[in-house]
Amino acid sequence: MTIMQDRPPAAMEEAVQNGFNLSWLQQLKQQIPGAAEELANDPTLAEHTPELMDESPNQTQRTRGALPRQGVPQYSAYTFRDKSEVWGYNLTKLYQEAVSRQWSSATDIPWETLRPLPDDVEAAQCQLATFFAQVEFVAADVPGRFIAQMSPDYHEVRMFLLTQVMDESRHMEVFRKRALANGGGLMRMIDSVSDVTGGSTDNAREFTEMSSRLHIVGEGNVLTLFRLGELMAYNDAEKAIYRRAAQDEARHVAFGVLHARYMNECTPERREEIHAYLDEAEDRQATGNGGENPAARSANLTAESLAILLGGGAKKADEGQKILAAIRQRQVKEYFQRLKSCGFDDRIENGRVNPALLEAYKAAA
After folding, report:
1. Range with top average pLDDT, 4-13, 47-56, 133-142, 160-169
2. Total Cβ atoms within 10 A of residue 109
3. What is the DSSP string of 116-174?
4. Which residue among 29, 123, 137, 361 is the one 20 to 30 A from 204 at the CA level?
5. Hey, what domains does the chain have and what are their CATH numbers?
6. pTM higher than 0.90, yes or no?
């Protein structure tokens, strides 16, 4: 206010004529007690976040809790304005974890530990890195399309998905670097970019459709491989890549599971719809159609690369195939655990689950 008082009277008169009015200061009638002090224990200030509405009437870019303003254009571009379409449990905690565990491929990977590898092993590493660079690009691109379609009232979902886009972009970067860093190079792409996460995932028009196929099945399969990355790693750089990528991927999978659990409990009328999404995704998990599962039984460059890396070279690929079979079983076991966690394990009991997956699960028991 001191600044305004120091201005020439003519300037203030002109400002008043142009609508200068400080009445908006009266809007802050109620202070939030102790919010700053609470940040130490609750970084999200969840208790001070306005309650969500089941259906958002907000068709502007107004953030939840902000006061509306007259004359703002109605964008009407938000396809998803129902909480039940996009919401999930523990979103804020997942977001906070994502923010606190960001890492850099430039400073957090010990690239100096790379050493020349036998040609067959290096080629296999480069082929696998090419696959992961491609699949992680799609895992960023697909959910990214839904962010701007959500009402700003559901900013928790938006913010988490933005961290996933960042995570997957970093994965694409680090695997691309690995392919180029040790004398190899990028190898052949899989048959179709749109088939990386199941084809229908890439073309999904509904959020739960995308999440069921991508997070619960597609990224779940990749997470198993990342967790077992040390079996395929030949140096500390590769081990670090898999460890860090696994912690990111686990969050994405958790998001999908928690969204499916919310849908199961709050919109049970959509259970059959979600089961239908899982039917198709399971087929691709079992058969490897479209390259969705690099560890699938079908012959593909990625599975062959895994066999070489797991066995210790092309001449020991038969040993690698045995380990790969155990990894497939591990993928199925972890997938069944996700189904149980989100409340869709009835498909296991009633025989709806893909028979090949059930066979692998029983063999691993």
Report:
1. 160-169
2. 22
3. ---HHHHHHHHHHHHHHHHHHHHHHHHHHHHHTTB-GGGHHHHHHHHHHHHHHHHHHHH
4. 361
5. 90-364 (1.10.620.20)
6. no
